[in-house]
Amino acid sequence: MSSDFTSLDRYSRQMRVPGIGKTGQERILKSRVTLCGVGALGTVLANTLVRAGVGFIRIIDRDFIEPSNLQRQVLFDEADVTANLPKAEAAANKLRQINSGVIIESVVADINRTNIEELCKDADLILDGTDNFEVRYLINDIAVKLGKPWIYGGAVGTSGMTMTILPNETPCLRCVFEASPGPGEVGTCETAGVLGPAVQLIASMQAAEAIKILAGKRETINRELFSIDLWDNTSRRVKIARLLGKVDCPCCQRRQFQWLDGEFGAQTTSLCGRNAVQVSHRSQTKLNFVSLAAQLAVSGTVSHNRFMLKFDVEDYQFTVFPDGRAIIKGTDDVEKARVLYAKYIGH
Ligand SMILES: [Zn+2]
């Protein structure tokens, strides 16, 4: 048996798949991917694509690994938690051991409108491995602006959803969901929990779509919005192709990149001398304190009246207002406050 890892032979089973072949594999080997987020979806995506032989993958994540991640984030283990490694760094170490032929770049950063173009402009494909709607809408903006394919995936609780976007060829995220859910409208993994297989299934579907695109087989992609609930045993395919050009989409029809331009999304300000940060979320909807309080009660102490909601968790005190604005006391670190907001209130 030869142990030549550089030989195309390591991809022999994949090349035997009709539709990939040697030509498709050679295209995959030359491809460049930007992966936004390397948590639950992202670890499955990175693992699958590095094994499939992408040429280059840039993995971006702002978080560190915590024990509660290990239930579903398949590239990490207890030693990574003990070593206090950032997710992007720990993932890159594992991925290099899996396939030394792939160039892996790890970026420990918060993806926002100031850096997303730089992170995506040299990619053939952008993958959504985040759990954050703001980043998804930013990815949609940059993908449409630069004309690059991207694959949306999301999972929370026992269900998940995925959709493949080829700008100008299929509807974009905003053609289908014009506005992101308001803060507190959908649960987060922190408040609603998440079933490992739900994330892994969605990420595997995203990875299959990625392989098709990178192998040059765009005609085979899934052009429907797919969603599944693994607890209720229900799944749905929504035909969305007809939306392209039929809805007056601000992003792909009018080319207004409102997330990229900072018109929507969170704005953070450190409140000097108060050890607090204000996160203003420009949401079109008014927060529902009753449902938000019920979600938050699993993580900390919560109370509310008509005007504000108070929430104590870890060493932080949140004061949340009906328009989505929050003051988070206990930190003056703007980045940390954004992370806390996304974790508990939503996106
Ligand atoms: Zn659109």
Number of E-state strands: 14
What's the average pLDDT? 92
The succession of helices and strands, N to C, reads: HHEHEHHEHEHEEHHHEEEEHEEEEH
What small molecules does this complex bind?
Answer: zinc ion
- Specify the overall morphology: globular
Q: Order of strands across the biggest sheet?
A: 3-2-1-4-5-6-7-8
- Biggest β-sheet, characterized? 8 strands, mixed
Brief write-up:
The protein has helices at residues 12-15, 21-29, 40-52, 78-82, 87-98, 116-120, 133-146, 173-176, 189-192, 196-214, 289-296, 334-344; strands at residues 32-36, 56-61, 103-108, 125-128, 150-156, 159-165, 224-229, 234-239, 265-271, 276-282, 301-304, 309-313, 316-320, 326-329.
What's the topology here?
Layout lengths: L11 H4 L5 H9 L2 E5 L3 H13 L3 E6 L16 H5 L4 H12 L4 E6 L7 H5 L4 E4 L4 H14 L3 E7 L2 E7 L7 H4 L12 H4 L3 H19 L9 E6 L4 E6 L25 E7 L4 E7 L6 H8 L4 E4 L4 E5 L2 E5 L5 E4 L4 H11 L3
Parallel strand pairs: 1-2, 1-4, 2-3, 4-5
Antiparallel strand pairs: 5-6, 6-7, 7-8, 9-10, 10-14, 11-12, 12-13, 13-14
Helix pairs in contact: 3-10
Bound molecules: zinc ion.
Can you characterise this structure?
With 347 residues, this protein is an alpha/beta fold. Helices cover 31% and strands 23% of the residues. It is built from twelve helices and 14 strands. It has helices at 12-15, 21-29, 40-52, 78-82, 87-98, 116-120, 133-146, 173-176, 189-192, 196-214, 289-296, 334-344; strands at 32-36, 56-61, 103-108, 125-128, 150-156, 159-165, 224-229, 234-239, 265-271, 276-282, 301-304, 309-313, 316-320, 326-329. The strands form two sheets. The protein has an eight-stranded mixed β-sheet, sandwiched between helices. Strands 9-10-14-13-12-11 form a six-stranded antiparallel β-sheet, with helices on one face. β13 and β14 (326-329) form a beta hairpin. α3 (40-52) packs parallel to α10 (196-214). The radius of gyration is 20 Å and the shape is globular. The protein binds zinc ion (ZN). Zinc ion is lined by residues 171-172, 174-175, 249, 251-252.
